[in-house]
Amino acid sequence: MNQPWFTLEDGDGGECRFLRTGQLLRYNNTLPVNNVEVGNRVRVAPWNSVSQQFEGGLGQVIPVDNTNDGLPYPVLEIVNAPEYKLKDQLMYAVGGSQRQIYGLFADVEGANMHWTPLGGVSDDITSLGSTDGNAIIIGTQPGNVYSFDTATGNSNRMPMSLPNPASGSISRLVIQSSSLMFALHTSGFILIYDGSPWQAVSGLPQQSYSALETDWTENPKTLYVATDTSVFSSSDNGKTWENQSTGLPARPHCSDIRFVAQADGSKYLYLGTYGRSSWRTLIPGPQRGGRVSPILGEIARVIYGVIQDGGGLTTGGPVPPWGPEGELVIATAAVLLTQTVPGEVGRSALLRSLQLLQRATTEMLERSNVTQSRET
Fold first, then answer.
1. pLDDT for 14-29, tens place per residue?
2. Where is the domain boundary, 254, 285, 316?
3. Domain assignment of residue 265, yes or no
4. Which residues on adjacent β-strands are paired with residue 294?
C-alpha cells in the first residue's frame, strides 16, 4: 500500500510532466506577457531538491524548430526509457498538437531543448505514449489508436473490439511494452492491448475515469487508475484492484495521476485535482510486515478526509473536539496503521502514535477518576 497523500502545491494546475533529466514540463491556462497570451506554450523548469521547489517559476518556453514560438495547446507524454536519437540528441518526450506529432530533443541532462516535428495522423490527437521513443502509440478524438514509427513517420491503425455503446475518445495511453498497453476511453472503460485487439478490462465497471498511470519500474508492473473520488491500483493487469486513497479528501476531484522514479531510487505518485491542490504519495520499497486491512485503510481515509475538508460539505460543519474517547480510537488505529509502514518513516510514525495513545489513555483514566470521585 502507498503512503498517505499530502498536499504539494496549492491551486489549479495545467499539464505537468517530469523528465528523466529532473526537469518539469508544464503549461498553465493563462499567462499574458505584454498583452500576448503565452500560457499555453510548453515550458521547462529545473527542480531544486534543496529548496523543494521548481526554479524560475513556470520556467522557459521550449521553442519549436525553425520558429520563435513554443508548442501550443499540446498533449504531452514522457518517454520513460529514451533510446531514439536525432542529431545525437535523445528524445525525452513526445507532444501532439491537433494532428501533428512532435519529439522533445535535448543533450544529456536536458541542455539545448527543442521540439522537432515528426509526422502526423488523420485524426485529432488526444493522447500519446512511448516506452523508448522508437514507436509512439497515439489515441485520437474519434476513439482510434495508431502505432507510429518514429524513424519513418509511418502510422498504422490498431484493431479494437469494444463494448457497445463505446462512443468517445482515447484520453490516456499507458505503454508498458510493445505487447502490453492500457488506455482510458471516455465512454467509461479502461482498455487493454495484449497482442490481440484492444478490449475493455474485465475487473472494472463502466464509469467515469479521470486518470491512468503505471509504475513501469516493477515487474509485474503496477497499474493506477483514478476516478473523481478515489485512486485504485492493480498488480495483475487489471483483474483485481485495491483502493489507494488514504490521506485524500472525501471527494478530491482527481484530474490526473503521474508516476515519478527519482535518481535516489525513491518513487512517487503525483495527483492533480480540480480545486483541491496537487498531492504526492511515496511508493514504499519491498514491504516488511503485514498489509493494512480494508477496515483500517477506510478508518485512515475517513480521518484524513475529515481533517483535509475541515468539516465543510463532508461533515456539515467544523470538526468538533474529539474528546478522550475519540482520541483513544484514533490513536489505536494510528498505532496499528503505522506498524505496516516500513523503514525509518514507519518507526518515527509509530513512536508518535504510541505517544498519542499514551496521552489518550491518561486522559481517559483521569476522566474516569474524576467521575468516580464525584460519585463517591
1. 667 778 777 877 776 5
2. 285
3. yes
4. none
User: Of 2-6, 187-191, 195-199, 362-366, which gets the smallest average pLDDT?
Assistant: 2-6
In this structure, the chain runs to a length of 376
- The answer to whether 221 and 205 are in contact (CB under 8 A) is no
**pTM over 0.85, yes/no:** no
Q: Is 188 left (phi over 0), alpha (psi -120 to 50) or beta?
A: left
Whether residue 63 has a cis bond before it, omega within 30° of 0? no
Same domain, 252 and 309: no
pLDDT of 36 higher than 80? no
How many domains would you assign to the chain?
2
Residue 132 belongs to domain spanning: 6-285
How many CB atoms lie under 10 A from the CB of residue 104? 30
Q: Is the peptide bond before 165 cis (omega within 30 degrees of 0)?
A: yes
Task: Tell the burial category of 89 from Cβ atoms under 10 Å away from its Cβ (0-12, 13-18, 19+).
Answer: buried
Domain boundary among 258, 285, 312: 285
Please say whether the beta carbons of 107 and 19 come within 8 A: no
In the DSSP assignment, the letter for residue 266 is -
pLDDT digit string, tens, across residues 109-124: 788 999 999 999 999 9
Whether 49 maps to a domain, the answer reads yes
Complete DSSP assignment for 360-375 = HHHHHHHHHHHHHHHH
